[in-house]
Amino acid sequence: MNSGQLVWIVVVIVVALVIVGLVVFFGRKRKLKADRRRAAEMRQQAETDELGAREGEAKAARAEADAQQAEVDAERLRREARDGREDARTVREGSQERVREADELDPTSDARGGRDSQAGENRPGPDGGTGQPDRPAQGTGPG
Fold first, then answer.
1. What percent of the chain has pLDDT over 70?
2. I want to staple 120 with a disulfide (CB 3.0 to 4.6 A). Which of 22, 27, 100, 115 is the partner?
3. Residues 21, 25, 31, 32: is their CA dihedral positive or negative?
4. Torsion angle of alpha carbons 41, 42, 48, 54, nearest 10°?
5. 123 CB contacts (<8 Å, ≥6 apart)?
6. Sign of the four-CA dihedral 109, 115, 117, 118
């Protein structure tokens, strides 16, 4: 081999190495650029996921608050119901006490507030009558 051929072989090898170096360099640069783009997409997806997670937490917190409000409302309604029962019991007891007082004033009445048919027969009632409905005397009818 002569020196001219040797120089050409060295030049070809150097050019090939430069080409390989450029391919590797630009390949890495392209890969780096693709990796950066992929990383940016991943970050954006992570931000979207984070936003969705925070939204889910907010919905859960609202649901918890709604549940607590429902418990408070239920407790208030239970108290109102208990107070209503107590008020009704008080009214009932007052009514029964008035009936007892009325029975003490008029011992001839039965427990329902009506007049006792045997004890009060021929006694004047509060309206001055005998407590008997007006009936014609026997045998005086049209017949």
1. 75
2. 115
3. positive
4. -160
5. 108, 130, 131
6. positive
CA 31 from chain center: how many Å?
54
Residue in this structure with the two tokens 């650029």, named with its chain if needed: 33
The mean-pLDDT minimum among 6-10, 16-20, 45-49 falls in 6-10
Task: For residues 62 and 54, give the distance between their C-alpha atoms in angstroms, rounded to a whole number.
Answer: 12
Radius of gyration of the chain (CA): 54
- In the chain the first and final C-alpha atoms are separated, in Å, by 168
Regarding pTM above 0.70, the answer is no
d(CA 108, CA 124): 11
Per-residue pLDDT of 70-124, as tens digits, reads: 999 999 999 999 999 999 999 999 999 999 999 888 877 665 555 554 444 444 5
The partner residues of 109 in beta bridges, in order of sequence, read 115
